[in-house]
Amino acid sequence: MPKVPRGRGSSRALLAVTILLLAFGATTSASGAVAQPHRSRDAPVVVIVMENEPYQSIVGSAAAPFINQTMIPGGMLYTRDFAVPGSLPDYLLMVSGRTKPPGDAPNLFSALGTGRSWREFMESMPRRCYAAISSHVVFGTNAALYARAHNPAIHFTKVTKTSLCDNIVPLNRKNFKLKSLPRFSFVVPNECNDMHTQPTNDQCPMWNGQTNTGASEIALGDNWLASFVPALALVATVILTWDEGDLADEQVVTLAYGVGVTPGQDNAAFRQSGLEAGLYRHFDLGSSPGRGATVRALPIP
Fold this sequence. Notes:
Layout: H1 10-23, E1 45-50, H2 55-58, H3 65-74, E2 76-82, H4 87-96, H5 108-112, E3 118-123, E4 134-137, E5 144-147, H6 157-160, E6 168-171, E7 184-188, E8 203-205, E9 211-213, H7 217-232, E10 237-242, E11 251-258, E12 264-271, H8 272-282
Parallel strand pairs: 1-7, 1-10, 2-12, 3-6, 3-7
Antiparallel strand pairs: 2-11, 4-5, 8-9, 10-11
Helix pairs in contact: 1-7, 4-8
């Protein structure tokens, strides 16, 4: 869990964290102290998915100081996690254990159902349960700002044809508040904040109404994480991963950070279906479907 430094700069650091918490809708005590985090088993779990960068492009990158100087030293880095080619197959693998599941296939979202609170937060999605292929474009490009291919829940009829579809919401200030996080959140930044596409003006709109600025896809994504994760990690267990790497081996960065996480490295081999298996285990949902039934489960505190 991130620590507020003590000493000469401690007051300034505490003020910065407090401002972040208030911006997310969290609360402080009457004395102004930041509310204490949950115990790990009771803490919300938040999965954040980034795009299209292999492990070697992220770990050690000067363009990603927040990931390399804060999240990796303070989190658990899974050094051998492997995806499969293609965005949508990976997103579906993470929640169903299959790369091409039928619409009525078993999946994490319907397994959570109404018994355990959950939401899928999609940045730049126009409205709740939005079923269209895309919306808006990244400035100066033909890439969609919101893409249905990065929204796994919308592909399952056990979600879309039920009241559960109301849990697929835009990531914005109204919907995303730290003080009322569900047990599970699946967060997907838009296509210039997730390292997918670089805007020609180096600027990308953000869920909180601000504008992200960065000279590269990696810089934009790292900046977005630096604005989103610190306050979140005080109250939740954050699992950060990428949808795909490169065709050579599809190795991607996956790391756990925040509540309940002991810093270190895990060098065991994992697959993206291992995230599904780990989430099924964490939430006591029984056997995970598809490939999740046979792979090593990603440990989730």
